[in-house]
Design brief:
Keywords: Signal. With 176 residues, the protein is α+β, with helices and mostly antiparallel strands. 19% of the residues lie in helices and 41% in strands. Strands 1, 2, 3, 4, 5, 6, 7, 8, 9 and 10 form a ten-stranded mixed sheet that branches.
């Protein structure tokens, strides 16, 4: 028994599938994570960026207002490391000058009930850091020595957790 589908319909279907595959392939492009970003606070209450670099390098970090519309993302702070961050733990103040960091955009005051995201990047887009999303209320619940970061469960779900700095250092790279 022969096919009952006409050639024009088949061509349109194949064309639609090809377009769908192409769109899915290009829209899913992301920079591979090679680090984990988190936040903490100092004893004086200064906001800290915390980064656990897992394998290659990270060149800097950006804090922006979190939104689903990329065209509406507003950068509220940006920092470039004086030299690439290599595997290991690094922390720096976000709201004051920090040794070994150049502030490329000074931190704007954080607004209550606004969601922010801290992420890490490389100048050549070869690597990134998994980001942490937080509000000023989340920051206010932190105590010195704690780190808030996005943990990924075994089934792939992501949730923000708060752990000791030692636990962050020991476990953050396990799921990158």
């Amino acid at each position: 028994m022969g096919s009952t589908t006409s050639r024009p319909v088949s061509r349109r279907f194949v064309g639609a599938v090809a377009v769908g595959v192409a769109l899915a392939a290009t829209s899913g492009c992301t920079v591979s994570p090679d680090a984990v970003a988190g936040i903490s606070v100092t004893a004086e209450g200064h906001l800290l960026g915390v980064m656990m670099v897992c394998g290659h390098h990270i060149d800097g970090a950006t804090l922006y207002v979190d939104t689903d519309d990329v065209s509406k993302q507003v950068t509220v702070g940006s920092w470039t490391a004086d030299r690439p961050l290599t595997p290991g733990l690094v922390a720096w103040t976000l709201d004051a000058p920090a040794a070994d960091w150049t502030t490329t955009k000074s931190l704007a005051p954080l607004t209550a009930k606004t969601t922010y995201t801290l992420s890490g990047w490389t100048k050549d887009n070869s690597w990134s850091a998994s980001s942490i999303t937080f509000t000023p209320a989340d920051r206010d619940r932190l105590t010195p020595g704690q780190v808030r970061y996005a943990d990924i469960s075994d089934n792939g779900d992501e949730s923000a957790i708060t752990v000791s700095l030692a636990d962050f250092k020991a476990k953050a790279c396990q799921k990158v």
